[in-house]
């Protein structure tokens, strides 16, 4: 089960990724999380400030930094039965580098939600920093306002969940998604080894409905 999950920020991609990794026992390799871990860690990393500033502005991190981080992560033993790539690849160079490194993808899942709905969702999104659990003030509220359901700790809003940043991220996302899907479509057209199956899922339904639709597709494929 080697998957790429695609979805604009706020499409529900993170929530669905959690369901998939539990159901199929595969690790979720989220580049956003890996990068936020680098920023939070006490390790000396030459790129820490650059990563922090780029994420804050909603810009992409340079390919060489991200490719190294992901390829090293995929060498870990928990990836032996598959993986769920979340947020990677996002550029043509990243897709090429992945193919060169022999990293195979069986399925691409795209969760589609319109931009206007995304913006409404983003404003209310809150996360529990240490577990990655995601809530929404309106659509998926925690039992106690502003607190994680399991630990009771305070929920936070991501620095990059603001209107200006989200508009920038949406426009970057649409451009990168097109490049990526064209790349994989090309592999399919020319029957080049390792082309994945592509599935587009309507992300406007309820969380449970989207999850069931994804599961039924993945079980068949
Ligand atoms: P995400 O949590 O996936 O929305 O990622 C948050 C931010 O991390 C993005 O807006 C980018 O600045 C950076 N980022 C995550 N994945 C990548 C990637 N594959 N390539 C470049 N930048 C990335």
Automatic annotation (TrEMBL):
Its EC number is 2.7.4.3. GO terms for molecular function: AMP kinase activity; ATP binding. It is found in: Cytoplasm. One of its GO terms (biological process) is AMP salvage. Pathway: Purine metabolism; AMP biosynthesis via salvage pathway; AMP from ADP: step 1/1. PROSITE patterns: ADENYLATE_KINASE. It comes from the Bacteria. It catalyses: AMP + ATP = 2 ADP. SUPFAM superfamilies: P-loop containing nucleoside triphosphate hydrolases. Residues 124-161 are annotated as: LID. It is an enzyme of class 2 (transferase). Residues 125-160 form the Adenylate kinase active site lid domain. Keywords: ATP-binding, Cytoplasm, Kinase, Nucleotide biosynthesis, Nucleotide-binding, Transferase. InterPro entries: Adenyl_kin_sub, Adenylat/UMP-CMP_kin, Adenylat_kinase_CS, Adenylate_kinase_lid-dom, P-loop_NTPase. GO terms for cellular component: cytoplasm. Its main location: cytoplasm. AMP binds at residues 31, 36, 59-61, 87-90, 94, 158, 169. ATP binds at residues 10-15, 125, 134-135, 205. Belongs to the adenylate kinase family. NCBIfam families: adk (TIGR01351), PRK00279.1-1 (NF001379). Catalyzes the reversible transfer of the terminal phosphate group between ATP and AMP. Plays an important role in cellular energy homeostasis and in adenine nucleotide metabolism. Consists of three domains, a large central CORE domain and two small peripheral domains, NMPbind and LID, which undergo movements during catalysis. The LID domain closes over the site of phosphoryl transfer upon ATP binding. Assembling and dissambling the active center during each catalytic cycle provides an effective means to prevent ATP hydrolysis. Monomer. This is Adenylate kinase.
């Amino acid at each position: 089960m080697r998957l790429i999950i695609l979805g604009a920020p706020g499409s529900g991609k993170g929530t669905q990724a959690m369901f998939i990794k539990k159901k199929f026992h595969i690790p979720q390799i989220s580049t956003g999380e890996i990068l936020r871990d680098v920023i939070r860690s006490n390790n000396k990393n030459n790129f820490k400030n650059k990563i922090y500033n780029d994420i804050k502005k909603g810009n992409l991190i340079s390919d060489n930094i991200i490719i190294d981080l992901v390829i090293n992560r995929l060498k870990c033993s928990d990836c032996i039965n598959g993986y769920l790539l979340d947020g990677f690849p996002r550029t043509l160079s990243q897709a090429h580098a992945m193919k060169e490194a022999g990293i195979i993808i069986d399925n691409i899942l795209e969760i589609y939600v319109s931009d206007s709905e995304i913006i409404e969702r983003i404003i209310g999104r809150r996360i529990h920093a240490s577990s990655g659990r995601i809530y929404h003030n309106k659509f998926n509220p925690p039992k106690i306002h502003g607190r994680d359901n399991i630990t009771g700790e305070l929920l936070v809003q991501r620095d990059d969940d603001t209107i200006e940043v989200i508009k920038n991220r949406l426009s970057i996302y649409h451009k990168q998604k097109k490049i990526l899907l064209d790349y994989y479509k090309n592999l399919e057209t020319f029957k080049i080894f390792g082309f994945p199956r592509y599935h587009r899922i309507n992300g406007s339904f309820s969380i449970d409905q989207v999850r069931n639709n994804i599961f039924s597709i993945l079980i068949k494929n």
